[in-house]
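ok new one. same drill as before - structure tokens go in, u give me an amino acid for every spot. 204 of them this time. try not to just spam alanines like last time pls lmao
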């Protein structure tokens, strides 16, 4: 009887400990499928004379402390590299209390907001930020056609981490997709070696 009671107590303690240890464990989210985006991007690049080796996809629906800038290889059909990227503070024309974790979009000049849609990555130029390299972005849709006027460019920033920092967030930009210095060196090397224009697609 005493042995039976002892084993019952031990079993209850084990069950309680298991329940307690797993209660606050955060399981990883299932990988998001971008198959339709990759297919549409490939068709767009083929029809418009863009590079068909790779393109860049930014998903701003992902937490800003996680990787959300992806390099997709059309030939291998895989994401080869990914990293953190900033979004705009979007707090000039109205209050934006959720600015750190959730991007807002606006085409107006000086709005400091992000813009989504397809962009052509243009001329390589000098930047006063990061590794001193930037690429002009030319908006290809109504929702991003003011990119050049707003000086929304692809550049690096030393304040942006090269690793995931969740639950912390990346710093805010004035609308530019800014990446880490190390990742920008990778992008710069890739872009300089490509003769055709490259597609950058920002989604939410």
């Amino acid at each position: 009887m005493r042995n039976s009671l002892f084993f019952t107590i031990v079993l209850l303690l084990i069950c309680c400990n298991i329940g307690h240890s797993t209660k606050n464990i955060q399981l990883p989210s299932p990988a998001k499928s971008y198959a339709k985006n990759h297919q549409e991007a490939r068709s767009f690049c083929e029809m418009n004379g863009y590079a068909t080796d790779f393109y860049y996809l930014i998903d701003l629906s992902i937490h800003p402390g996680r990787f959300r800038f992806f390099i997709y290889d059309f030939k291998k059909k895989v994401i080869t590299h990914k990293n953190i990227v900033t979004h705009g503070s979007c707090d000039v024309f109205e209050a934006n209390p959720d600015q750190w974790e959730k991007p807002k979009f606006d085409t107006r000049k000086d709005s400091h907001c992000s813009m989504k849609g397809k962009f052509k990555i243009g001329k390589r130029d000098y930047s006063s930020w990061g590794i001193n390299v930037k690429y002009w972005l030319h908006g290809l849709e109504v929702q991003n056609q003011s990119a050049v006027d707003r000086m929304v460019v692809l550049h690096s920033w030393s304040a942006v981490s090269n690793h995931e920092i969740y639950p912390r967030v990346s710093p805010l930009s004035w609308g530019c997709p800014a990446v880490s210095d190390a990742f920008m060196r990778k992008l710069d090397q890739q872009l300089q070696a490509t003769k055709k224009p490259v597609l950058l697609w920002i989604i939410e």
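Residues 1-30 have pLDDT under 50 and may be disordered. and btw The longest helix spans residues 2-23.
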